[in-house]
Every structure is written in C-alpha cells, then in structure tokens.
Amino acid sequence: TARYAVFGHPVVHSLSPRIHAAFGTQLGIAMQYAAIDAAPGDFANALGAFAASGGLGANVTLPHKERALALCTEASDRARRAGAANTLSRLNGQWHGDNTDGAGLVHDLTERRRLDLRGRRVLMLGAGGAARGVSPALLDAGIGELWVVNRTAERADALADALGEPGRVHTRYWADLGNLGAFDMIVNATSAGRSGGIELPFSLAGNRSLAVDLSYGEAAVSFMAWASAAGCEHRFDGIGMLVEQAAESFALWHGKRPDTDPVFASLSARAD
Ligand code: ATR
C-alpha cells in the first residue's frame, strides 16, 4: 500500500493520521499514514529514509515547515510566498513542496462558515510560521487591509516586506494594540496559547467581528475566551482549518477532495 506520513516534533498528538485515514475510508483509497517524530537536526535524514522506503507524500508540521521547503526541488507559488511547505509529494525521485494552510483557512471560513472575507480590516497577531503560512491566502481572498502586529516588531516588518503589498499591509507595535480601533477579523497566529495565554484589549473587537485562532484544543482556550468576553460575533479555533488543509493535501496526492463534514463533526465533538 502507498505510504504517507506526517513529520513533526512533537508529533504524537497530531490528528493528521486520523483525518487522512477517515478520508481514505470515505473514498475507498487504501494507504498507510504514519506519524514520524524527527528532531530538527534529524528531519532531513528522516525524510530521506521515508522516501527511500517508498514514501509518496508527507505532511510537515512544527517545527519543520521552513526546512521542508528548503529540501524541495520544486515548490508551488503559494509555498514560496509562505516561505514554508506543509505538503510534500514525491515525483520522479524528488520532493515537490506545497502549502495548503492558507487555502485551508480560507476554505473553512468561506465555505463551512459561509463568511465573506472581502474588504475586511484584518488584524494578524503574530508574525511567525503560522502567520506567514496564511497571510498570502487571506490577501488573495480579497481582504481590505492586513495589520500585522507582533511582540518582536522586526518580524512583523519582515512579514510585511515579504508579502509585498505596502498599500494593503501595515505593521504596528504590540504596545499600540489598544490604539488601533476595531477589526472585522482578528487572527491569533501567535503561539502564546501554548505558554500561558494571551491578553488583548477589548477595543480590538467590534460586535460583528470574526475571531479565529490558528491553533486548537488547550492552546486556543485563552484567545477564544478573550473573543467571547470581547463580544466577537464569530469565534472559531483552528480545527476547521486543520481538516481543510488536510483535505487539500489529500486532493493533491489522491486526486479527489474528500467531504470534510463528517471528520470535522467528529473532531469537534471530541474537542468539546
Ligand atoms: P509558529 O510556527 O506557531 O508561528 P513561531 O514561528 O515560533 O511559531 O512564532 C510564534 C509567534 O507567536 C511569534 O509571532 C511570537 O512572537 P515573537 O516573534 O515576538 O517571538 C508569538 N508569541 C509567542 N508567545 C507570545 C506571547 N506570549 N505574546 C505574544 N506573542 C507571542
């Protein structure tokens, strides 16, 4: 059977094996999908060994997404713009890199949640790998403005420069969050929820605002609690994006996009 895997560190809690197995069952596609833990220094070797043993495709999660792109012979435009790859495909003895994170987020918000992103004034909290991964897709989805605010100002500036749209993309200091007014959409792309939580001014939220966390489970609790207390109308954690980016990867490998509703429902039930 065809072999696929997710690489991460840590990776034991990854939901990807379960999601891809469910997609395979749904579409009658036989395959193996493993979780492979590789420390940063071992990632290139582990990926090479996987290829040598017949691996056809890999998902890549923290902290390997940038390194994964560097190991690819070819990469999609969206992976290059994100500076990171989350989906690798083995073609003619070489890895081809793609990044489905941004498309997954936009698909979740516009298809599942039926929200219109066009023209929105968007606040991006964070400027690390997660923010880089989704920002190009948000711009392509027609948002009006993207305000990148990061604890370390230089990284916000670097992300804005990489996005290359000075007319739509702006940066501000973290200390100024209280003076930026309200946003139509607030994206938590920080990892603060994995280490003690996040504190934000309520003035960022309007009553029609959409708040979305790119992480899920425990890591999303503090931002979701803030969004609720601040009165954001729509509040979602990253489970929807997780399932949709997996469906995009599955479609790249197997040529068919699965119905994500049953998997989303079972993961949401589990998260509650
Ligand atoms: P990821 O791939 O999850 O984005 P990362 O590249 O390490 O991981 O980026 C983590 C992001 O969360 C960064 O934007 C980081 O801010 P710095 O660039 O200043 O480090 C942000 N972050 C982490 N902890 C934070 C906290 N307690 N408050 C605010 N931002 C935080």
Structure description:
The protein has two domains: 2-99, Rossmann fold, CATH 3.40.50; 102-238, 3-Layer(aba) Sandwich (Rossmann fold). The longest helix is centred in the last third of the chain and has 16 residues, at 239-254. It contains ten helices and twelve strands. The protein is an alpha/beta fold and 272 residues long. It has a six-stranded mixed beta sheet, with helices on both faces. The protein has a six-stranded parallel beta sheet with strand order 9-8-7-10-11-12, with helices on both faces. The two termini are 34 Å apart. 2'-monophosphoadenosine-5'-diphosphate (ATR) is lined by residues 62, 126-131, 150-152, 155, 189-192, 198. NADP(+) binds at residues 77, 126-130, 150-155, 214, 238. Belongs to the shikimate dehydrogenase family. Pfam families: SDH_C, Shikimate_DH, Shikimate_dh_N. Pathway: Metabolic intermediate biosynthesis; chorismate biosynthesis; chorismate from D-erythrose 4-phosphate and phosphoenolpyruvate: step 4/7.
The shape, in one word, is: globular
Counting H and I runs of at least 4 residues, what is the number of helices? Answer: 10
CATH architecture of the largest domain: 3-Layer(aba) Sandwich
Strand order, largest beta sheet: 2-1-3-5-6-4
Rg, Cα atoms, Å: 18 Å
What is the subunit arrangement here?
A: single chain
Brief rundown of the structure:
By secondary structure, the protein is α/β, with parallel strands linked by helices. Helix content is 39%, strand content 24%.
Features:
Rossmann fold; binds 2'-monophosphoadenosine-5'-diphosphate; 10 helices; NADP binding; alpha/beta; six-stranded mixed beta sheet; 272 residues; Shikimate dehydrogenase (NADP(+)); six-stranded parallel beta sheet
